[in-house]
């Protein structure tokens, strides 16, 4: 048998716990960040305010991560278009009907 090679028959101790992340630079300012988020400010604005008001020297990404953690990463709202397909493009084109006829047919296509 080779020295230093584990055969699996030896009993290994419990697996070491994964390292815990170090406290970020935003941790002491968590209450301030939460208050500014509730006021409707963006992470970019909060980072700028922290730098001027509290002398924050951390990075924008750390503020952004803290804001995302505090808000739970809210998704953008779903917005439904409340008109029939093509009606807005037709309404816009209705006022320029004469100029549209003067163009070649392929120039009249609309992308929505």
Quick recap of the structure?
This protein is mostly helical and 112 residues long. The protein has helices at residues 30-38, 43-54, 60-71, 87-94, 97-101. The protein is extended and about 80 Å long.
Structural class: mainly alpha
Helix content: 40-55%
The outline comes out as extended
Give the low-pLDDT segments: none
Beta strand count:
0
**Oligomeric form of this entry?**
single chain
Distance between the termini: 72 Å
- Mean pLDDT, all residues: 74
Q: Please report the number of helical segments.
A: 5
Largest sheet: none
Radius of gyration: 29 Å
| Element-by-element helix/strand order | HHHHH
* Beta-strand percent range: under 5%
Question: How would you describe this protein?
Answer:
The protein is mainly α and 112 residues long. It is 41% helix and 0% strand. Helix 1 (30-38) packs across helix 3 (60-71) and helix 2 (43-54) crosses helix 3 (60-71). The longest helix has 12 residues, at 43-54. The chain starts with 29 loop residues before the first helix and ends in an 11-residue tail after the last helix.
């Amino acid at each position: 048998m080779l020295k230093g090679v584990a055969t699996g028959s030896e009993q290994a101790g419990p697996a070491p716990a994964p390292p815990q992340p170090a406290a970020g630079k935003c941790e002491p300012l968590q209450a301030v960040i939460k208050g500014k988020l509730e006021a409707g400010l963006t992470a970019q604005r909060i980072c700028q305010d922290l730098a001027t008001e509290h002398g924050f020297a951390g990075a924008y990404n750390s503020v952004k991560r803290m804001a995302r953690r505090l808000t739970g990463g809210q998704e953008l709202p779903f917005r439904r278009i409340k008109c029939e397909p093509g009606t807005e493009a037709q309404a816009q084109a209705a006022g320029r009907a004469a100029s549209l006829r003067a163009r070649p047919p392929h120039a009249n296509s609309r992308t929505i």
